Amino acid sequence: MTSFRSPLLRHAAVTLALASSALSLSACSSSSGKSSDAALAAAAPSASVTVKGVPISADGKLTATLPEAIRKAGKVRVATDVPYPPFEMYVSEGSKEITGIDHDLGQAIGARLGVKFEFTGQKFDGLLPAVQAGKFDAVMSAMTDKKERQQAVDFVDYVNAGPGWLVRKGNPDGIKVVTDVCGKSVSVQTGTNHQKILEQRQELCKQQGKPAITVLAFPKDSEAQLALRSGKVSADFLDEVTAAFVADTADNGTAFDTVTGKEAVGPTSASPIGIGISKSVPGLKEAVRAALQSLMDDGSYKKILEAYHVPNIAIPQATINGALD
Hints:
By secondary structure, this protein is α/β, with parallel strands linked by helices. It has 11 helices and 15 strands. The longest helix has 15 residues, at 193-207. It is globular, with a radius of gyration of 21 Å.
């Protein structure tokens, strides 16, 4: 997996323009007076959405592939953990309006399907249980597609990014290679793939005769960052894209630096990040995958990632359950 440090936008906002209009269906009547399936498939909702300056229109054929319950509701209920910038964050301090890479891609996928992706904040370690309980239809929260997680949901994979270290400005504890954290305290968000990777790093420290890492896990990464800022830990282990964004934006770029690359983080998962889709909503994952692929094909997907200065995390094809580990 290629590691990179990208200069990221200081603020991210989504421009959402919904043109309210009725769904127009051509009355192709048969002798029984009912509309034909072909007419339903060809009909397209006229609502359109603009995401990061990119106009997204609905595809009636894709809309027709949605489960009936989703079409009737007009929305996909999406659980997400906020904040985890730039994937998910609030538009401004004190606001409850969500924005970010996941939110924007979700709005684009929903618009292509003719429905809305409705995002609601949840703690990360409660995301999958909430979907399994039927409270949500999907999870979109920078979640790595793992074979273990596929027991709870199916994944539609949409980007690929590796982990990285967030450190205090100037890297005062000198973290350059992965074993430099042996014997030190580091923070991480509870329930994440990064937490599991740190457990594997403990074995690496042991093999090299170095003291163990003291891992402090927090419900939210914002709390893990506070532990770093206060000097309670030497580094925060998180997604490299988020690490770069935080380093670029916190205190106008004066609070943190990042340490990335294979030498610094060690061997990591090659699995992509995916949208977790409920197994109780048959047909939804296929519809979401097809809509995402259409956004990839027409360039909209890449333009949204470019708006966040992270085109390198793009993948060439939308896949279902593409985890490698």
